[in-house]
Amino acid sequence: VMAGTIPNRMYLFTGTSFGHIYPDPPPAGGWPQKTIFEQLNQYGINWRYYYQDNSIFLGQFSDWNDPGIQGHVFNISDWYSTLASPQADNLLPSVIFIEHAAATALDEHPGSNTQAGAARSAQILNALLNSAAWKSSVFIVTYDEYGGLYDHVPIQSAPAPDGIAPICSPGFDAFCLAGDFSHVGFRIPMVVVSPWVKPHFVSHKVRDLTSILKLIETRFGLPSLTARDAWADDMTEFFDFSNPAWLTPPALPAQPTDELCDFNAELNGQH
């Protein structure tokens, strides 16, 4: 969506930001909008939500007050211990979300040492690549907004998820552009990692964060949450399920963490 971090994360969880264009604080009891996690519970699909520090966006939703939701939330240490088991393929749940490590500055966010964040991402992915669960897994790496970088590709149209108009916060009306939610946001990186992906495949379809929801819904026969994820591409074009090309995964290159990360030094041309 044409907004910042929080509304985009709302789209990833619920298929809509239900009118929000700013990082508005949740009401008492949390946002009541239905999340994909509530949907998975409703249809009996096993899932797990991993956190790395105290960054748990799910805690802003009313779902968080449901013991049936909190019982699926684990520290990232469980990811590593589960994947270390020879039975990892049978122990991992069907759907997993791994929360970014914002509080510890390991989320590749500008202003932090992006090398350290990339190394953490590689550590998480390597645990899967070297496990018994690799042969039946799909790992999606993406971001929650574009980071303010220039994009030469025109903004693409998409159905509005619902009939809720943008909510303009008092004092910020000058920044609330007239319009609706009928466009996707600027482009963000997205990589699909699996033994079943087509080698060297680059997609040219328009999609947004709700395509991740659509992939889950397609795989497990779930209904859409909103009109946006109903429209979204389900990402199945990435895969060839008749021919696993990467059952033996290639080794990832080592991620260096020893480069200079000093804003003042950068200003002085010392990089």
Description:
The chain contains nine helices and five strands. By secondary structure, the protein is an alpha/beta fold. Strands 2-1-3 form a three-stranded parallel β-sheet. A two-stranded antiparallel sheet has the order 4-5. The longest helix has 16 residues. It is globular and about 55 Å long.
List the helices and strands and how they pair.
Blueprint: H1 5-14, H2 36-42, E1 47-51, H3 67-70, E2 73-75, H4 77-83, H5 88-91, E3 95-98, H6 114-129, E4 139-142, E5 190-193, H7 210-220, H8 227-231, H9 263-267
Parallel strand pairs: 1-2, 1-3
Antiparallel strand pairs: 4-5
Care to count the β-strands?
5
The percentage of residues in β strands lies in 5-15%
Protein structure class: alpha/beta
Radius of gyration: 19 Å
Sum up the structure in keywords:
9 helices, 271 residues, alpha/beta, 25% helix, two-stranded antiparallel sheet, three-stranded parallel sheet, globular
Care to give the gist of this entry?
The chain has 271 residues and is an alpha/beta fold. It contains nine helices and five strands; from the N terminus they run H-H-E-H-E-H-H-E-H-E-E-H-H-H. The two termini are 35 Å apart.
